[in-house]
């Protein structure tokens, strides 16, 4: 899958989708909008669309690096498992 931007074959249709998305954000907030986008991705994927994009998780590390243990676990047990 190419990372090059593809030409928009229907700019008006794209604009309508974006306006609908903006309306959804304003009327129902980001949680509902996120739900709709996830459903669209699932729908497209189930029908064979190959989607490539980066997503960011809501994870934020609240522990500063100086507060983190050197190794969170038991090294000896970890070596035995490997």
Strand content: under 5%
Distance between the termini: 35 Å
Radius of gyration: 21 Å
Please give the number of β-strands.
0
**Biggest sheet record:** none
Q: Averaging pLDDT over every residue, what do you get?
A: 83
Please tell me what the overall shape is.
Answer: elongated
Number of helices: 2
Order of helices and strands: HH
Low-confidence stretches: none
Structural class: mainly alpha
* Helicity range: 40-55%
List keywords for this structure.
82 residues; mainly alpha; elongated
Give a quick precis of the structure.
The chain is mostly helical and 82 residues long. The chain has helices spanning 11-46, 75-81.
Could you explain how this protein is built, in words?
This protein starts with 10 loop residues before the first helix and ends with a helix. It is built from two helices and no strands. The longest helix is centred in the middle third of the chain and has 36 residues, at 11-46. The chain has a domain at 11-65. It is an all-alpha fold and 82 residues long. 52% of the residues lie in helices and 0% in strands.
Question: How is the topology of this model organized?
Answer:
Elements: H1 11-46, H2 75-81
């Amino acid at each position: 899958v190419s990372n090059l931007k593809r030409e928009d074959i229907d700019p008006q249709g794209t604009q309508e989708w974006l306006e609908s998305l903006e309306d959804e954000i304003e009327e129902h907030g980001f949680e509902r909008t996120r739900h709709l986008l996830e459903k669209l991705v699932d729908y497209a994927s189930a029908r064979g669309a190959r989607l490539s994009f980066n997503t960011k998780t809501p994870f934020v590390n609240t522990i500063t690096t100086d507060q983190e243990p050197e190794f969170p676990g038991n090294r000896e047990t970890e070596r035995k498992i490997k």
